[in-house]
Amino acid sequence: MENKNLIPGSIIDWLNRSVMLKLGVIFILTILLMLPQVLIKELIRDRQSLNMGAIQEVSDKWGSEQTIGGPILTIPVILKDLTEPNISHTAYYHLLPDQLTIRGKLDPQTLQRGIYHIIVYQSDQELSGQFNLPGQVDLPQLQEVLWDQAFISIGLSDLRGVRDNVSLDWNNTTIEAVPGSRITGLLPSAITFPVKLDPLAGQYTFRTQINFNGSISLQFLPVGKNTEVIWTSDWQDPKFTGATLPAERSLDAGGFTGTWKILQINRNYPQSWLNDEYHEALQASASGVELIQSLDEYQKSMRSIKYGLLTIVLTFLVFFLIEVRFRQRIHPFQYTLVGLALVLYYILLVSLSEQIPFNWAYLISTLVVGAMIYLYSRSVFEQPRHALVLLGILMAVYGFVFVVLQLADYALVMGSIGLTVILAITMYQTRNIRWYES
Description:
Elements: H1 9-17, H2 19-62, E1 66-80, E2 88-95, E3 99-113, E4 116-132, E5 142-145, E6 151-156, E7 167-170, E8 173-176, E9 178-179, E10 190-194, E11 203-215, E12 217-221, E13 226-233, E14 238-242, E15 248-252, E16 255-263, E17 272-274, H3 279-284, E18 287-291, H4 297-305, H5 308-325, H6 332-353, H7 358-380, H8 384-406, H9 411-429
């Protein structure tokens, strides 16, 4: 009995050689290879979360983000009740300094928690200035001013970071600090100095030194009628944040210097008020600096994987053009193996960048995956020079992506130029293909 082919030979030959069918298969493979890249992005996010957890753990022990608030002079007053004249209650009358100068240095350090490196800092801050007392406290329903129960509060977000004892030079008199804030509505965390005031003295000068640890950022509240803050650091990647940017700044290889000059009219609260009336406005006036890394390894890995589709498409395009122009058949399984190697590249990049600098991780990953694909493609292509062409294109693409990662501010224009060049080359190389022929 003769065997009969259910599918004529001409149809089988068309299926094997059809350009459009091959393109369809390549398109499906490309879409399928994008799915592992989605999982790799989730992996990067998970590793970022672990990194943030390590940062939080170290910050809890070393000192978290710090904000210097104050000094604020608080004078307890006794007020008559508006509805019951025979009843009185105690309120806090807050007075801000006429002049406030803050000078300090941020000394960044790197701590390690497992495989993660966390940026922290030590800071020494000197606060000085003066208060001008009013001749009298003018408040409605005022019954008595408790001048001998006044106190100075200097806010600091995380008191666990304070390294040394703190004292206040108050009109040439040294006053030791007591722990805790007595005005938690304004300054939830603060150092307090009890002072006795003479309403006839008119003016009081102050000076104090606070040495503390912190992480990520340092800010201040411009409570002075005239506030000047001068901060220096050898950190090279500062990010100035908050309500007001520095009036003067300098940045070089040795670090940065920032100088803020803020007037009373630049903020939304007065020089004096009762209780917690201006709490939100006070906190909203904070300005300062963050010690950031321009791009960490996870951000760079996430940005590089965005070019994964481009890498796969260009690699498959080289395979396809060689297959069409030189009449060389390449099996879809061979496309798949090369595509998986391109996906593996990003897992290798993420894992290596956690252990060594990102640039070295990028170079090693590129060389390893490039060598794998080159050696494999030599067995796929009939002519070894085709494998060299593929290797050259891969190195060019990875080199282009590396340059884009380094030029964060110009990534869009560089990417646009690169894609335009790639499209132009593709159009030129495919100009003679007869798409409707087998």
